[in-house]
Amino acid sequence: MTASDQALDSLALAARAADSKGGEDLVALDVSAPLPFADVFLLVTGNSERNVVAIADAVEDALREAGAKTLHREGHDAGRWVLLDFGDLVVHVFHREERLYYGLERLWLDCPALPVAPLLAAGS
Q: InterPro entries annotated for this entry (predicted)?
């Protein structure tokens, strides 16, 4: 199984929104094979709690403008790890320490990475 076109479109919007707020180390993983509830994870690093929240807000706003609904949001108040669930796309915005500690890239190592750089270049 591979990520749906809708998930990939949402990924592009989310990646550009995260990048616009200084999100770093963007990694997208196709989790459609092992997970029945999502196609893509987007992992993003922010430099501070305020930056993490700003990135999450920008992603949520961009996807809402495109018609997507946030099904679940966690961690927004703390600003250390914000999880945004849009159904086919789940966005994880981490503070640097949390990203290193939880290591989702290691946990989902068997899932193929999706190229993010072309998505950012396409938005320029």
A: Iojap/RsfS/C7orf30, NT_sf
**pLDDT tens by residue, 25-55:** 999 999 999 988 899 999 999 999 999 999 9
What is the distance between the alpha carbons of residues 61 and 55, in angstroms, rounded to a whole number? 10
**Residue 124 included in any domain:** no
**Residue 85 forms beta bridges with which residues?**
72, 90
**Residue 77 belongs to a domain with what CATH number?**
3.30.460.10
Please tell me what DSSP assigns to residue 4.
-
Q: State which residues of the chain have pLDDT below 50.
A: none
Residues 6+ apart with CB under 8 A from 29: 40, 41, 43, 105, 108, 111, 112, 113, 114
Residue 55 lies in a domain: yes
pTM score of the predicted model: 0.95
Residues in the chain: 124
In a domain, residue 13? The reply is yes
Task: With respect to residue 92, please indicate whether it lies within any of the assigned structural domains.
Answer: yes
